[in-house]
Amino acid sequence: MSRLDAPPLASLDKFFDAYGLNEEERGPWTRTMHEVFGFKPRNADRLILDGTVMDLGGLTMEVVHTPGHTPGHLSLYFPEQRILFLGDYDLTPFGPWYGDVYSSIEETIASVNRLRNIPARVWITCHGSGLFESDPGHLWESYLRVIDDRDARLLDLLKEPKTMPEIVDACIVYKKKREPTEFFDFGERAIMGKHLERLMKLGMVTCEDATYCKT
Q: What is the CB neighbour count within 10 angstroms for residue 2?
């Protein structure tokens, strides 16, 4: 496993801590993790670092550290075949996920730009289309543009002061209310929380008494 992502997989509680789930959300998520994903605690047999090269019996694989989605997110490059496994950087219209406690918008942008400069000819992802046999081209820009779009929509919303529950109800990420709410409301809160942090650092948003407003 990735050195930075191994700890949350050691137990479900540590996994939920890394996700930032509150106590109310953990009950439904516990059922989902067991019944849908078959979660079992995992301990690493080997910790993998950026730049590690593995010989998989005549197949060379290079490890590319691409943080942002998670701090230890890894992509995998097979240089002889020029195949690049993007992992969770799936180039879908939904855009990147960076809602975990230690996720980062800035690292997401840097990682996507690093990946697009690797001389691959085949790209594989965990979600969405799954396979690109020609250069994704404009999809790289469209994928990152979602971040700017979320910023812009949030700033527009915050022309009037809003609390986090009101921001969640605006559905900037998922566009409309969806079920199950414990999943989608969490996603709205997690991703919007990262945007609020980013915009406050830039001096574009202020927070007073748990209420956010555009400066």
A: 19
pLDDT in tens, 55-99: 999 899 999 999 999 999 999 999 999 999 999 999 999 999 999
- Give the per-residue pLDDT at 152: 98
The CATH class given to the 48-214 domain equals alpha beta
Do 99 and 196 form a contact (C-beta atoms < 8 A)? no
Indicate whether 100 pLDDT > 90. yes
What residue segments make up the domains of the chain, in order of their start? 1-44, 48-214
102-150 residue pLDDT tens: 999 999 999 999 999 999 999 999 988 899 999 999 999 999 999 999 9
How does 169-206 read in b/e, with b if 16+ C-beta sit within 10 Å? ebebbeeeeeeeebebbbbbbbbbbbbbebbeeeeebe
